[in-house]
TrEMBL record:
GO MF, one example: oxidoreductase activity, acting on paired donors, with incorporation or reduction of molecular oxygen
Alphabetized Pfam families for the sequence: p450
Iron keyword on record: yes
Top-level taxonomic group: Eukaryota
Pathway: Secondary metabolite biosynthesis
Gene3D superfamilies the record matches: Cytochrome P450 (1.10.630.10)
UniProt family annotation: Belongs to the cytochrome P450 family.
Residue positions binding heme: C484
Cofactor(s) demanded: heme
Entries under InterPro entries matching the protein: Cyt_P450, Cyt_P450_E_grp-I, Cyt_P450_sf, Cytochrome_P450_monoxygenase
Keywords, comma-separated and alphabetical: Heme, Iron, Metal-binding, Monooxygenase, Oxidoreductase
Name the record gives this protein: Cytochrome P450
Species annotation: Antrodiella citrinella
Length: 544
């Protein structure tokens, strides 16, 4: 009998010890996880065999072990001894990332987290067993700034199967800073000038693509996606696709989509990547082919590859091919859907707000009357309303709506007066920050580009209501040393498209399209996804 009691105690003790090991070391790889969960119950089995047959003893030992292990995890995560216990949040999210994933996979995470902040009336909410969401502007600099936190474990999940990480995913701040150097060279003002030729060609092609479909329904989302992808391919690999010319006959955008489809699972449950098929493999294979072709072709003009591959001889040694491939692939993913999604949102918002559309078209006509080259960027700095329209669209629809994850490592950190314990993931919830009436008022949820103009001269605001415009709360391109390195290129590209497009065509929603359904199709799949935008294009000038 005493052996039975000893076996039981041993089983329980081993289960608690295993939980402690998981808690401290967080083993993820199957080669560690499987033995850790399968071997310990075999020890009490020896004692149990004196009392039971082998199958019964095995079931008993394993049943007790796993029940105690799971109960211990559940109790700890929900208990007041958990380091994040003092932060409010839904019970299921505290319990397991599985429930977090169930919420995220709906594509409504951006709205859900915003609601949680409102429900608990708190600037910090617990959105996972070990994850917090922040809504307070004052926490942006401490978390995202130079002395802030490194990237979080979601990037381990996103990159678990990659041969090597691209700059965006490095969790070591020193490595990140080093890998950022060629990007800084590739996307500084003078390098961007070199991409203008290709950009001009692609913008003209986009407008021709739309003009060729004048009078019939065309999906602006797809047209702009094709444009963005074609341009990023030119820029990253010196020419990659001809989607606007041929359509997506080779399924190139689908390859990128396949990666994004698995992003949520990989991001939310980083260890899951090791157990499920690798969604990014097709993209990586395609990238290796593109890079090898690009190297064979050489470069007739400076593209992104030129800098990433150290063809400018800025570094003493050139990186191996797999690093260049990883970075150039990132350019396609980070540069194309971000810009195209934002442009699509802008077109939607313009058509939904005819007064704003008219005002922007007037500004375009002022700087680029018919016959003027609207792709000459010289007037961009003077086009204040255009800048306001773009900023306002990005404020309402930031492309990484739930923020890019950061995490404390072995040491915790105090942000303002709140302590973030070690190994805690955190996000600045961009969507909530951008729509917080404490930062943008009045009408924080409405498209009102004028707020950006008024902010320059608040005394011009003629109303009884207060006017609030907190520029520090606008983080569409993120903040700190890992902010978006492509911001200037993205802004230039979007302005060129808008100038040329608004000069050449008029756009309206296609019949049968209900603009009020737009938000229902805006999804947070780590990057923001938008739905179809059926439009009718009419030329502004005779096409004879
Ligand atoms: C409207 C367009 C764009 C928006 C709103 C946008 C926004 C962002 C955001 C929010 C991040 C995450 C930063 C973080 O982790 O804190 C990011 C990173 C990045 N973006 Fe953009 N992006 C845009 C276009 C582009 C373009 C055109 C490129 C050009 C290739 C680009 C390249 C990158 C890269 C390389 C990173 C990683 C930077 C790093 O980790 O150091 N982005 N972007």
């Amino acid at each position: 009998m005493s052996h039975l009691r000893d076996a039981l105690l041993l089983d329980v003790g081993l289960a608690l010890l295993t939980h402690l090991v998981f808690n401290r070391i967080e083993p993820l790889a199957p080669k560690f996880v499987v033995p850790l969960l399968a071997l310990p119950p075999l020890i009490p089995l020896i004692l149990l065999l004196e009392h039971f047959s082998a199958p019964t003893a095995f079931c008993f030992a394993s049943g007790v072990f796993h029940t105690v292990f799971i109960s211990s995890v559940v109790f700890y995560r929900l208990s007041s001894i958990h380091p994040l216990a003092r932060y409010p949040g839904p019970t299921l999210l505290k319990l397991s990332t599985f429930f977090v994933y169930k919420k995220n996979v709906t594509g409504r995470r951006h709205l859900y987290i915003q609601k949680l902040h409102e429900k608990y009336n708190s600037d910090i909410v617990r959105i996972g067993p070990n994850e917090l969401s922040f809504r307070d502007v004052a926490s942006i600099a401490p978390i995202m700034g130079t002395h802030g936190l490194a990237k979080g474990p979601s990037y381990d999940g996103l990159m678990a199967r990659a041969v090597i990480r691209p700059v965006v995913a490095w969790r070591d701040k020193a490595v990140h800073a080093e890998r950022r150097l060629p990007w800084n060279r590739a996307l500084n003002t003078s390098a961007i000038k070199d991409y203008e030729g290709s950009l001009t060609g692609r913008v003209a092609q986009l407008v021709d693509y739309l003009l060729a479909r004048s009078g019939v329904e065309v999906d602006a989302t797809e047209a702009i996606k094709f444009f963005s992808y074609d341009f990023m391919g030119d820029m990253a690999f010196g020419g990659l696709s001809e989607l606007m010319r041929d359509g997506d006959v080779h399924g190139q955008t689908k390859v990128v989509q396949a990666t994004k489809d698995t992003n949520l699972m990989r991001e939310t449950i980083p260890w899951s990547t090791l157990y499920f098929p690798d969604g990014g493999i097709a993209l990586r294979k395609a990238a290796v082919t593109m890079a090898t072709d690009r190297i064979k072709k050489g470069n007739s003009r400076r593209d992104l590859f030129h800098y990433l591959n150290n063809e400018d001889d800025a570094e003493p040694t050139s990186p191996p091919l797999h690093i260049v491939v990883a970075e150039a692939t990132l350019a396609i993913v980070a540069g194309s859907d971000t810009t195209s999604g934002t442009l699509t949102n802008i077109l939607y918002l313009l058509m939904q707000h005819p007064q704003v559309y008219k005002k922007l078209q007037e500004e375009v006509d002022k700087f680029y009357p018919q016959g003027e080259n609207a792709m000459n960027c010289d007037f961009h700095p003077d086009m204040v309303f255009m800048e306001a329209v773009i900023n306002e669209a990005l404020r309402l629809y930031p492309v990484v709506p739930s923020g890019s994850q950061r995490a404390t490592q072995r040491k915790g950190m105090t942000v303002l007066s709140d302590y973030i314990p070690p190994n805690t993931s955190v996000r600045i919830h961009t969507w909530s920050v951008h729509r917080d009436p404490r930062n943008f008022y009045p009408s924080p949820n409405d498209f009102w580009p004028e707020r950006w103009i008024i902010a320059e001269k608040p005394s011009s605001f003629m109303s009884e209501e207060p006017f609030i415009h907190n520029a520090n709360a606008f983080i569409a391109f993120s903040f700190g040393p890992a902010n978006c390195v492509g911001k200037n290129l993205a802004m230039k590209g979007m302005k060129m498209v808008l100038c040329h497009l608004l000069q050449q065509v008029n756009l309206r929603f296609a019949e049968g399209f209900d603009p009020d359904t737009w938000d229902a199709h805006v999804k947070d799949y780590f990057m923001l996804e938008v739905g179809k935008l059926p439009v009718i294009v009419t030329p502004r000038v005779s096409q004879a």
